[in-house]
Amino acid sequence: MKDAEHTQNPLRKSYPRGIGVKKELIDAVRRSLKDAEQGDAEAQYFIGCCYEYGDGVAKDKAEAVKWYRMAAEQGHLEAKKSLKAINKQ
What is the number of domains present in the chain? Predict the structure, then answer.
């Protein structure tokens, strides 16, 4: 994915880390979902976080696992950690 495309949604990178998020999360989820569906590992991780914690979407462990797994399979380290942690719950 091109760098310009990654910068379209800065919330996606800051939200899982809790950095200065005061924007409309539902819009961030909607924009990120398209990228996630197209295979963007960072977007998949973000969507997984949203489903795990119920931020911008209904809390859904199965959906969180699904998105974390997709990102982890692409080598996303945080997704791997999150997948391991959520499976211990």
Answer: 1
